[in-house]
Amino acid sequence: MRQNKQWATSGPGQQAQQHYLVEPRHLAGGGDLRHVTEYLRASGWKDKSKTGGPLVFDSPDKSVRIGYDPYAQPGGWTISGKQTAHQQAWHATFSQHTPVEIVAGLTDTLSTAPTAHAPNVWQPLLQRGWKTQQGQHFTARSPDDNAFVRFHQASPGQAHWWAGARNEHGRLWEATFTATTPLQLVQAFSAALADPQPVMRPLGHIPPSQRIRTTSVSVLPSQLAAWQQARTGAARAAAWARYATTRPRSATAGPYTAAGGRRR
Q1: In this predicted model, what pLDDT tens digit does every residue of 174-199 receive, in sequence order?
Q2: Which of 29, 75, 79, 39 is nearest to 211 (CA)?
């Protein structure tokens, strides 16, 4: 189903660009990597990438590394967490064409303060009408039957999370998470996966499929820039909230203490 919607038609020195809102998002294709990377930068992550090489970002405390390599096989995202006093080492992967909005469900959460609620990976899926089936593995499938999330247990002590999507042409993307991946992160992924909001793709960047719905929109470059700025602003706010939650209690003066020890 294709519709038209005129968001903006004019602007000083600007020309509207053709984009499409695509749904369901799990069939929308990879998207712009900056949706993930600019949020990381705004959250204080260190860009360790080399010119012409894969993308590499380290968390401010150096406990997590995020990489994107389009050249390796099968290529895509890798997220690895080091072992700490309170968390085992963990590893997650997203293949190359995983929608960036779904990847960001996990990567954005790495820069936010932890919640007090016990995570439940299945809850966001069930709330959106995903169907579950119990067997050797517990699986949830999207209402259109084109995406799934599974807790795969091959044998005692050998388990992992597995997810993916396909259209009429075959598998589009896959994601895996070790069993030690913090459940808060896997839940954030499942919530982003089940989100019914469409995602935006420019002309020529939509996978050919009869299983997607598109809405044609005209967007000014200034609008795209404003949306990106709003997202990076949210990243900075989330990073500050995380700092305020995790900083030592002795650091009562905070970041605005003068050199002489008196609060400004």
Answers
A1: 999 999 999 999 999 999 999 999 99
A2: 29
23 within 8 A of 236, measured Cβ to Cβ? no
Q: Which amino acid is residue 136, in one-letter code? A: Q
Both tokens assigned to 247: 């900083």
pLDDT for 246: 64
DSSP secondary structure string, 93-128? EEETTS-HHHHHHHHHHTTSPPPSSPP-SSHHHHHT
Q: DSSP of 30-81, one letter per residue?
A: ---THHHHHHHHHTT-EE---TTS-EEEE-TTSSEEEEEESSSSS-EEEEEE
Measured CA to CA, the distance from residue 216 to residue 225 in angstroms comes to: 19
Residue 255 has a CB neighbour count (10 Å cut-off) of 9
End-to-end CA distance of the chain: 59
Give strand pairing partners of 181: none
> Of 64, 77, 26, whose CA–CA distance to 196 is shortest?
26
Mean pLDDT of all residues in the chain? 88
Confidence class of residue 240 from pLDDT cuts 50, 70 and 90? Answer: confident
Closest CA to 77 of 111, 42, 44, 35: 35
Q: Can you give the pLDDT at residue 96?
A: 94
Amino acid residing at 159: A
- Which among 230, 197, 236 has a CA at the least distance from the CA of 213? 197
pTM of the model: 0.86
Task: Let me know: does 125 contact 190? Beta carbons within 8 Å.
Answer: yes
DSSP symbol at 256: G
Rounded to whole angstroms, the Cα distance separating 198 from 202 reads 13
238-257 average pLDDT score = 59
